[in-house]
Amino acid sequence: MYDSKNLYVAVYAYDTEPDRIRRSQLQRDPALQDDDGIRVLIDSFGSFRDSYFFGLNPNGARSDALTENNGAFNDRWNTIWRAKAKVVEDGWIAEFAIPFQSISFDPALDEWNLQIIRTIRRDNEEIRWSNIDQSRNRIDMTNPGRVSGISDIDNGIGLEVQAFATGVVSRDWVLDETDVELNPSGNVFYKITPSLTGSLTFNTDFSNTALDTRRVNTGRFSLFFPETRDFFLQDAAVFEFGGNIFRRGPSNGLPFFSRNIGIVGGRPVDLIAGAKLSGKIGPANVGVISTRTGAADASNIDGQYLSSARVSIPILSESKIGFVLTNGDPTGGSNNTVAGVDFQYKKSNLFGKGTLTADFAHIRSYDEGVNDAMTAGHISYRSQTWNTRLRLRDIGEDYAPKLGFINRPGIKRLDGRVFRAYRPNTKLLRYAETGAFGNIVTDQSGQRQDELLGGWVFLQNNPGDSVNVQYQHRVERINQPFNIAGEVPVNPGDYQWNRYRVNLSTSRSRMLGIGADVRWGGVYDGDLLELRTNIDFRPSKHFELSTSYNLLQFELPTGDVSIHIASVNSTIAFTPDMTIKTEVQYDNISQSFTYFSRFTWEPVPEREIFLSFGHTALINRENFPRDFTSLGSSLALRLGHKFRL
Predict the structure, then answer these.
(1) What residues form DSSP beta bridges with 644?
(2) Mean pLDDT for all residues in the chain
(3) What is the rounded distance in angstroms from the CA atom of residue 311 to the CA atom of residue 557?
(4) What is the pLDDT of residues 30-81, one digit of tens each?
(5) Chain center to CA of 236
(6) Among residues 187, 425, 440, 551, which is most buried (max CB within 10 A)?
(7) Are 548 and 532 in contact (CB under 8 A)?
């Protein structure tokens, strides 16, 4: 149902065994796949690719996200909406109230694409209103249902103002200094049309951003960390470029990566102001962003103007064509411009129920007289039984997207995979797949640099427990020496080795979930043992504890190193809108210890009270835990309110 302000969805989820309804979480944005749940997906632009996602479990824990290109799931996105749930004698009830002011839409459309999904976790059962195809994941909007007749919507004047006041007390234990700051900040969103939103941000506050997952670089190329900041996640789907070329694969060559705005050399800088335009103009999807960053005093870098634009136009029945343009260098070292075009082709229901996708992109960077390009393509076919993929990248030596991400220029890379899926009708085995994969990397002259061949077998039972066994053969040519984790040198030369992997994972729908991933074999004329473990413990809906421990042990002719990475995350949920989340991380290479705790309370969806405490320290691995050196502490209180007119 709907009225002038909200879309309402109500589901009566009948269940003959209501005492077995799984409802282990109470926090905002839970791992909804671990509980019974109702999901509502709305494609209000008729894209058949992207959607607004709203989910609810039987405790009333809300989850919202943006889905992109039928595969990417951006759960960092939050908006204003309301929902309630209740377990009753014959099942449970879910009710959603989604304001039209919280989503954008094309007023010219007669119908919106809609999907409603129910999951029954104890049986690993999924019930879809439409798109009944096991080869497509639950967020795939290829064959959605329709909702029609929505008219006379009252969006007000389309203005939303987010006002924040943040007080921060920080302590530098090394310099013995204490600093107190009061920082006002704000965001303004104005719907120029129902499908086009203009946004402004001032002195943007990122105090509620979670820690990045702790990682240690053991390879030759820089690591990719995803965007986590709210302002850049709003309408992020509009800026998506290249389709499957940059999804579920290396991000090397990405023309625009918003994380480069406000972060220089791995350290944050102030975002003084920013403007963004996102949505639709006629049939075209449009995204434009321009920002002014503050100076990076530690690096002696002045503030910069950084901008990006993305336009795509639907063609054929399910495809689109577009371009991207960026300008600016976060380091101020050059006057960098990047321009690119892409074509994303999609054909559903091919050869029965299969889907064919074919994506192409050509991107060129211009950097003070030096210009070079990247050309890439991706083609895949997926049905209920077969999945194939082939992807090619040709990246020039001087291709340099300073507002994008690149960690290995000057290469040509071809990779592919094929696997066969099985769905036996037995009590013990729910799903199985066997497949092979491979890639080859050459330099621009065609000389081989890397080669990888392998295969795997994956088995999953009805509750969701799984085992994955994998074999791979790798060949690498090292042209320049480098150090593993900055400690063990690897000399130039040709190397090859075999490696094996066994991954075991129990279903996280139980109170205790355990995962173990073991890899062993050769590496650079030596041996590697890698162990990754995780434990998830949910004794009640109010408390969750997750721990992970990673061990990487290298034994090479040039030396040995053992890398230990540990983290502990906990959540205390008093209500669906009041939580305390704590993250603790440590690795023995940087010897860095990080503690970050966040209290969040939304008395109503429009109001926020946020309190955080963070502490960083160095722990000498030779004298742990006695040698503990505090570096810095910070206490922040942020009050926020959202006004809609």
Answers:
(1) 160
(2) 91
(3) 52
(4) 989 999 999 999 998 888 888 999 999 999 999 999 888 777 787 878 889 9
(5) 11
(6) 187
(7) yes
Please choose, from the candidates 274, 285, 301, 412, the residue with its C-alpha nearest in 3D space to the C-alpha of residue 342: 285
Domain boundary among 409, 435, 463: 409
Same domain, 504 and 396: no
Q: How far apart are CA 187 and CA 200, in angstroms?
A: 6
Compute the half-sphere exposure of residue 215: CA atoms within 13 Å on the CB side of its CA: 10
The conformational region for residue 192 under phi > 0 = left, psi -120 to 50 = alpha, else beta, is alpha
pLDDT in tens, 13-25: 999 999 999 999 9
The predicted model gives 418-434 an average pLDDT of 90
Return the C-alpha torsion angle 247, 133, 65, 108, nearest 10: 100
Do 279 and 387 fall within a single domain?
A: yes
CA dist 102 → 41, 237, 575, 632 (Å): 14, 15, 23, 38
pTM here is 0.87
- Say what the pLDDT of residue 626 is: 65
pLDDT over threshold 90, residue 228:
no
Chain centroid to CA 477: 32
Question: What are the pLDDT digits (tens) for 31-43?
Answer: 899 999 999 999 9
Length of the chain: 645
CA quadruple 265, 269, 275, 279: dihedral sign? positive
Q: With beta carbons less than 8 A apart as the criterion, state whether 273 and 261 touch.
A: no
Q: What DSSP line would sit under 138-163, residue for residue?
A: TT--SS-EEEE-------TT-EEEEE
Residue 190 lies in a domain: no
How many domains, in total, are found in the chain?
A: 3
Structural domain boundaries, residue 527: 412-573
Residues 63 and 136 in one domain: yes
